[in-house]
Design goal:
There is one protein chain. By secondary structure, the protein is an all-alpha fold. The protein has a single domain, classed as Hypothetical protein af1432. Helices cover 56% and strands 0% of the residues. It is built from nine helices and no strands. Helix 6 packs across helix 8. The longest helix has 16 residues. The chain is elongated.
Length: 171
């Protein structure tokens, strides 16, 4: 493999940066494979639930598709927890950063905010406020984020799926 000649960026030549640019293009083209590998790794993350984060992600994407979501939102539902392993305290922001170049801004916002919006369902059990999401009630995509939870994500923790979901997940 070719390498650049520099050890400090300011010493790089046009040839060095053209090499890096061509390698970067190939690396970006392989992103879907790396995302699928990271998604598969969710089968071993965050214990305690009745299903793995991979199964949760697959259920979320299947529900989004069944709910009539467009491809951007289906992909977002699939990848919304992709940051669990590397950024458990800000996984929403990490997933949004990964998706941002490829989906519309509304979808990125929904993914970025999903950590806050999910608190409405359980924060009170931990002695924390469950209404933080209401600070965004006037935001143009507030309803989209609420729908993401009510129709897609909050019911995607089932160890036994209805037959319609089981077939979609195995396809």
């Amino acid at each position: 493999m070719q390498h650049v000649t520099f050890t400090q960026m300011q010493d790089g030549t046009q040839e060095d940066y053209q090499l890096l640019h061509s390698l970067e293009h190939a690396y970006i083209q392989a992103l879907p494979d790396r995302l699928l590998a990271a998604l598969q790794d969710l089968s071993e993350s965050l214990p305690g639930y009745q299903i793995s984060r991979l199964e949760h992600s697959l259920q979320s994407a299947t529900r989004a598709e069944d709910d009539g979501a467009d491809i951007d939102m289906v992909v977002a539902a699939l990848l919304h927890d992709i940051g669990d392993a590397l950024a458990p305290d800000n996984r929403s922001q990490m997933a949004a950063a990964i998706l941002r170049p490829y989906v519309r801004a509304e979808v990125t916002w929904v993914v970025e905010m999903h950590g806050l919006f999910q608190m409405q369902f359980y924060a009170h059990h931990l002695g924390k406020p469950s209404d933080g999401h209401l600070a965004y009630a006037q935001h143009p995509w507030f309803a989209s984020c609420q729908r993401f939870f009510r129709a897609v994500r909050s019911d995607s923790f089932r160890p036994r799926l209805p037959q319609s979901y089981a077939g979609a997940l195995c396809a």
